[in-house]
Amino acid sequence: MIALGIDIGGTKIAAGLVRSDGRILDRTTVPTPAREGSSAILDVACTTAESLLDRSPDRVVGCGIGSAGVIDPDSGTVSSATSSLADWVGTDLRGGVRRRLGLPVRVLNDVHAHAVAEARLGAGAGANRMLLLALGTGIGGALVDAGRVDRGRHGAAGHFGHLPVAEAAGLPCPCGRSGHLEAVASGPAILARCRDRLGDGPELTDTRDVFAAAAAGDIAARTVLDEAATAIGAATAGLINALDPDLVVLAGGLAFADRSWTDRIVDQARSGMIPVVEQCPIVPSQLDVGSAMVGAALWCLSGEEVQ
Amino acid sequence: MIALGIDIGGTKIAAGLVRSDGRILDRTTVPTPAREGSSAILDVACTTAESLLDRSPDRVVGCGIGSAGVIDPDSGTVSSATSSLADWVGTDLRGGVRRRLGLPVRVLNDVHAHAVAEARLGAGAGANRMLLLALGTGIGGALVDAGRVDRGRHGAAGHFGHLPVAEAAGLPCPCGRSGHLEAVASGPAILARCRDRLGDGPELTDTRDVFAAAAAGDIAARTVLDEAATAIGAATAGLINALDPDLVVLAGGLAFADRSWTDRIVDQARSGMIPVVEQCPIVPSQLDVGSAMVGAALWCLSGEEVQ
């Protein structure tokens, strides 16, 4: 069986034809018209997808969409999102794509979709219960148990960046609350905190600059990164203690920014894990970010009814 | 269908015959010979259970056991436990009870068993995805989703007392790690922290004395209880953000110790919940602690295979 997978992100839209064993038969990527509103985004996504459908020799049974934002499991609409896509909240993804393509459509969050792929084809292959932690512009993740991604009541499960950590006490979080992991350990938080400490120091334009400054011996950069790693490690340990997975997969750009920094996260996590779960492996993801497209297609093919 | 339920706790063993609708047809309770070792405990539990089986006019199809300690899902043995039951770690509960009673036996942790009952018959009835938080000598809980209690790889899921919280930063936890919720918010932690602050003040022998001292205006008691409520609230919010349940049920003795204190926990939780899940109800449990016996029996009848 073959499904169409579409991954709608803030900068690009990836579409592909995916076989039930995970093999990608055809794929293409286009820039997201992020500022043009949801209708334009769906038009571009579906035009791109149609080019794949038109040239496919095989029947495509359905379409799985992995999208930025919180996807309501009942309606397949976007119920919450950052401003990276204009006008995205309220978008009827399921209905909008179904109308345009004439295929059955299933929609889930892009991190959830990545987790489905990682569990089937990546670091989680062979494990029954995989916890994925995605570290990047935001911090999120997913639990995949027996092939089923745990979406929660509103499709919001996996907001692991909004766990409390000591390092973030009193600090404002992008969600509007305070004290959450994301306030100290997302890419933008690390960059902003390092800038604050440096004052008139070297110009930093990207989180990568913070890692570079730390590698060059800058104390402010090292302190900020140490606090972030400690916080991520503590939260990871808390999740392992609370959820008892077979393994934890660290994904997202930050997980691959600096090997010794990621090692520090793992060490910190180990120092917080209770004895009964202390053997839980913590490993890097094996699939790249494009895997959300594959995960969405596989999830569509799985036919899992979550509603 | 009728199953035997057995709840093995540190002070008493409850046994009962439970119908699949949750009705208790017969029940009895005996003291746990906690210091005499696992064989003596199983003997007492099974002798008690046999008295129920002997006088039952109906066929009993199996036995569900809810037990203190972490129960390995594969083997039905106790893989980890506090010292409240002598010699409990390593006990083959499934095999030991099956041999004595000649019935099919299924075993799970007592908090997980309580959660099964609460989800079916208590505050979670009608909800699809219930998160239970049990506040007492320890802090634990369970997620029950679509009738299935989430036990985790080692049966250790629900160790919510071992989430990081700012209020516990640097404080030793009974698990051997530090910085965990249980270090500031379990009953014994509240009592010990209040004693530490009071020095030569009034004699405190029980966590209830701390609540009484706070009600009488004692500043040390109020401070310790405030920190505990803040920590529990923050962890509860983190769990709601991470797991997106339909509702949260607060159970255990501490949840009923003082109404205004529990209200404070709920207020603190609400201040940490992200917008997409902020409507999640947080309610008191409806079933008493004896419900672990009922939950174990219902779980046995559900025939759910978790291995």
Automatic annotation (TrEMBL), chains A, B:
One of its GO terms (molecular function) is kinase activity. Keywords: Kinase, Transferase. It comes from the Bacteria. PROSITE patterns: ROK. The keyword Cytoplasm does not apply. Belongs to the ROK (NagC/XylR) family. This is Glucokinase. It comes from Microlunatus soli. The lineage of its organism: Bacteria, Bacillati, Actinomycetota, Actinomycetes, Propionibacteriales.
